[in-house]
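The following block was generated as part of the benchmark described in Methods. Ligand: 4-nitrophenyl phosphate.
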Amino acid sequence: MGKADRSPSEEFLPKHRLLFVCLGNICRSPMAEGVFAHVAAEAGRGSDFHLDSAGTGDWHIGKPPDERAQAAALARGIDLSRQRARRVRPRDFSDFDLILAMDRDNVRALEVMAPPEAQAGVRLFMEFAPETGVREVPDPYFGAEGGFDHALDLIEAAARGLLSHLIDGR
Ligand code: 4NP
């Protein structure tokens, strides 16, 4: 199919291919992908985005998101069960326009992994929720139960901020 045959919603604007990244790709970045898809769909813009998530580490490749992440997301009406963990790969830096890192360690790891021809921008996801005063999504994996809900609150704020930034340039 030629470019001219695509409807506007099929034609991804350069800024609309988003990759969410954390360490294990079983807690924060799958939640971020699911939450962003949810808020974009609520705004009627779901089909404008190509979304994925990946980890800088390789321990959990092929696994679904952590059960605690799935349960916390499902309580908000967000189903993560079809996601599977994978590691960041070099072509992600050209297949995506924007890579959203959950914390500064992820940013540093991404900088090391980026091939010379990398095109994607790498940003801290929480930059899109300045009102929270938080710059990193804390890793809930080794923490207490409430950590997943807290992470989801932060992720939801950043997802809404990112969506308005991408849609309205705000
Ligand atoms: P995530 O959490 O980076 O939010 O997916 C983690 C999951 C697993 C591990 C670390 C962080 N781990 O060391 O196995």
